[in-house]
């Protein structure tokens, strides 16, 4: 048997997870008195699944806690079977889990499970997203009047913006605190939630609708002047003050960089 | 390769110890990174990598090159490896003599090759390609194996010797892996080491394994076992001073316990080679 055929046989055995070792593979393998060929192959087979399951538990701890060991393992194994590792780094193993959940799980579990998986993956993405130099209050302190007029900002690369339809954040917080996870409940209105990294540490917080709309305007390329103008309708004369307060908060949180 | 420029005694760099390393500047001669852990956009890993490389020599050790795989060498992986090497300026770049990616997807394990002429030519051509990109010799490590291919017509150590002769690649001798494979497959670990071209051995690895009675598994989650220390001592008496690294990848103990193992390696080396011999 050629090298490529030998490798294909072992790859197929590991990926399918069959407990029965195909005879065309077994006849290629030399065991020893202490470790017979079948036992040696089983070590590789078990290690493959154990390693991938371990990564899935690490990347989706809240989902794991919510579903429990057995159901999570069932979900993770089905996922691994549908989406075997396609990247050289295990860091990307769980990338397609939200997509998989949306096709594999039925309602009413599907939506909250999809959101929880998306939220947990957002933290994974934020953790090692490209670095940025966030806009700082020091830099803004040196702005000229023209700088303010033409100021354009965007969100730093680690920001993930989620619109939650369920009490997913509460479920995630409870899981993180190793407390009882509340039942999934649909919210009366969608909730904007940001996940990002600031000074090496992942952060999250929710936005009330007015703030979300203002931040979206700036992040989409709007100027500070256009933000003030946009806020006039709701905040009247207080619009510039409202805009400055939010801008200062976003800058202190390290959410923005110059556009 | 000159033995006089050995790096001394190092530890695998793991995130569990980043802060402690920077704060305490432990007596470690060098650190070895897992290359793939730093092929990311930014964040904590790259921050600490940059800080620690200011204070210690670093070596890169990968797990995903799949030098013996049936696929083409992953160009994206190789590009990222080169980018990381340019950033880290490591003393050398290592990976494993194995395959870890199949034709369809990644298997994330260090799978054994059949040690045949066909494999030798296959691996040699890929080593040359990698070395051309990296512009440096590749260092390849013997792996722990739980099976052998019946088609093998030479031992792993003979294969490494031939490969080194054909390509100029160097060897990372993992003494624990030799011991684990020798117990699992019933060969003489000392003969394995004697068959290696000693002038091409760049580095030694030491690690712990799990003993399941009639077989061993290379788990890196235990202290180094006594028979591995014994084999290490005998190996040093044959090789002379050789850069030595201790790996721990799970059940992370307090850092002082790893340092104690490192001092033990230092002490064995001093006893075997004479007190003045080993450190750079």
From TrEMBL, chain B:
Domain of life: Bacteria
One Pfam family here: MbnB_TglH_ChrH
Family: Belongs to the UPF0276 family.
PANTHER family: UPF0276 PROTEIN HI_1600 (PTHR42194:SF1)
Protein name: UPF0276 protein SOP97_14450
Organism this protein belongs to: Pseudomonas spirodelae
